Amino acid sequence: MHQQTSQALDNITAPPVASKPDLDRPGLLIMDVDSTLIDEEVIDLLGMAAGVGERITTITDHAMCGELDFAGSLKARVKLLRGLPVSAFDKVYAEVHFTRGAIDLINELHRHGWKVGVVSGGFHDIVDRLARQAHIDHWLANRLGTAHGVLTGEVIGQIVTKETKLHALRQWSADDGIDPDQIVAVGDGANDIPMIRAARLGIAFCAKPAVRREADRAITQRDLMEVVRILNE
Fold first, then answer.
1. What is the pTM of this model?
2. Assuming Cys at both sites, which of 10, 120, 158, 174 could form a disulfide with 33, CB separation 3.0 to 4.6 Å?
3. How far, in Å, are 113, 132, 173, 206 from residue 22 at the CA level?
4. 15: pLDDT confidence band, cut at 50, 70 and 90?
């Protein structure tokens, strides 16, 4: 059995599931982006750039706790961004940071023949860049309306909801020919719960209480390499 330091054990809570995905067989890791793959909430940073940061952060907090319908809350927050220059995305991208261990986790899973996907309630303007930089295999996010170089305050097309995240898990695993027993899902918000439930191993990452209750395991420190340590137990 893989040996862990006492510190690592302290940072992983909940008993192990009866069986879990095998790191040495092809698998799929699917995870959230904001506050999971990265440390920040992109829409909150956009809100700050637009001068409505506090209003947007309050809505975000309630949505991630499951107290608001995600689609409705996203529309309300995006509406507040109307008129923000699209150039703000360059500034925001420079302000986001990959969570500690994120790149190491992705590289380690790729080394073992796994695929990695991210599905986000955030925006392609940022997620596309993150995915390319981190060599992620699949990604999905929302698209924002623009006109004359500014945001229109609207979301274009279907909003990425908790149901969308679940569908992505199923679609990508089917496309890659991944055994359902080889799927891991990681997230922190209420909209991640369906994919966490559906995965063979669902992990709540520095998550809200409602998410921890639904997950097989909970990681309480901001280090995504804890996922590998769980798989190696």
1. 0.88
2. 120
3. 11, 26, 15, 24
4. very low
Contact criterion met (CB below 8 Å) for 136 and 118: yes
Identify the burial level of 10 via C-beta atoms within 10 angstroms of its C-beta, where 0-12 means exposed, 13-18 middle and 19 or more buried: exposed
Please answer whether residues 81 and 60 qualify as being in contact, where contact means their C-beta atoms are separated by less than 8 angstroms.
no
Given 10, 32, 104, 128, the catalytic residue: 32
**In angstroms, rounded to a whole number, what is the distance separating the alpha carbons of residues 86 and 27?**
37
The predicted structure's pLDDT at residue 38: 98
* Domain spans in the chain, listed from the N-terminal domain onward: 6-39+98-231
Contacts of 49 (CB under 8 A, 6+ apart): 84, 88, 91, 92
CA 147 to chain centre: 28
Architecture of domain 6-39+98-231: 3-Layer(aba) Sandwich (3.40)
Mean pLDDT of the chain, nearest integer: 92
Q: Which of 29, 30, 56 lies closest to 41, judged by CA? A: 56
**b/e string for 139-175 if b means 16 or more Cβ within 10 A?**
bbbbebeeeeebbbbebeeebbbbebbbbbbeebbee
Say how far apart CA 180 and CA 80 lie, in whole Å.
40
Is 34 annotated in the active site? yes
**Rounded to whole angstroms, how far apart are CA atoms 127 and 73?**
20
Residue 37 pLDDT > 60: yes
